[in-house]
Amino acid sequence: MNTKLSLCLFTLLTFHIGATYGESVVVSQTKNKLKDLDNKIASLKQNLNTAQDKKGVLNRELANTEKKMGDSILKLRSIKLGIMNKQKRITELQEQVAILTEHLKAEEELLAKNIRSRYKMGEYEPLKWILNQNNPQMVSRVLTFYQYIIRARQRNIQEVHNTRVSLNTNKETLHNEIVAEQALQEDLIFQQKKLEQDKLYNNALVHSLNQEIQNTKQTLEEYQHNKENLSRLLKSLMQQSIVQSQKPFTRMRHQLIRPIGGRPHFEKVNQGVRFFANEGDSVVAVHGGKVVFSDWLKGYGLLLIIDHGYGFMSLYAHNQSLFKQKGEAVIQGEQIATVGHTGGLKQNGLYFEIRQRGKAVPPLEWLS
Asked: Domain tally for the chain?
């Protein structure tokens, strides 16, 4: 049992940092480093917020650009459909004009033929018919017929001509509209290319900002991790400084308070002393220091060891429960555990030892 405890104490002493004046300097330096790290972290967070704000603005601009591109595509599609429809209509009009032109040509030929037939009779043909005593009614009907045919042809030709002019006017109007829409189409294509360039530029900026944000986050994580490490180190150094700020243990012979209140019955056991007390009674630290062990150990049950500096440690074994964890600082008289009988002890009590550089010393010579 003593061999295991000695090994435990040797390990604790091996990793114990000696109490020297230099520790106060280290504490001050660590505080300065921590402050500098806090400033860097604050600056990085500000940079990160700025970068994220810029990214938000760029994303909104990118969304607006993409929306404009979508609207432009719809307009281009509409214009292309309009141009196609107008070109189709022009083709149809051209076909109608061609048909009307043929029809007009035919009408003009018929009119010319009618006119030639009318005058083929000669200018005095009607008088000849009268002198020859032809039927006057017949003559009148023939003349009226010719006049009707000629006028009808003339009206038909005028209507066809007017229709052809109207179709040509419509065709010209459609052609002008196509020219205007083609100009608008070219302008939209130019705008589309510019929007594409804007999108590429914004995407490049967003990518660059994402990289900057990622790098800043990584650096921030590193700084925060370093801050945690420095904070733990500072806490450890501050706890060690507690040990150094009190009266040196070497001057506490016959001045240490007893770990159990009052004047409990005790007996010397092995290299220490066992105080008998009721289960659950308070166990207090005989002197300030830092807890270097707080766990169950075979033969000792729930064991707590306090490092008091200058190579001195105090041991508290067979506790019912432990109130302090490894690394915590304690002051003289602070409750650290409760009396029990863990570790195979048949009667409630506290086993107490004092060790100097790993070797047991008579504890009663140190207690008041």
From this structure: 2
Nearest to 76 by CA among 236, 192, 158: 192
- What's the one-letter identity of residue 273? V
In this structure, is the dihedral angle defined by the CA atoms of residues 115, 121, 126 and 127, taken in order, positive or negative?
positive
* Distance separating alpha carbons of residues 41 and 219, to the nearest angstrom: 9
User: Which residues form the domain of 151?
Assistant: 50-219
Q: Are 101 and 196 in the same domain?
A: yes
Contact 339, 265 (CB under 8 A): no
The residue out of 200, 219, 238 marking a domain boundary is 219
Please say whether the beta carbons of 178 and 86 come within 8 A.
Answer: yes
Give tens-digit pLDDT for 104-126.
777 677 767 766 665 655 444 55
| Pair (193, 277) in one structural domain | no
- Rounded Cα–Cα distance for residues 355 and 360 (Å): 4
| 26 assigned to some structural domain | no
Dump pLDDT digits (tens) for 67-84: 887 887 888 788 788 878
* SS3 at position 258: coil
* Nearest partner of 361 among 271, 293, 288, judged by Cα: 271
Tokens of 104: 């007009």
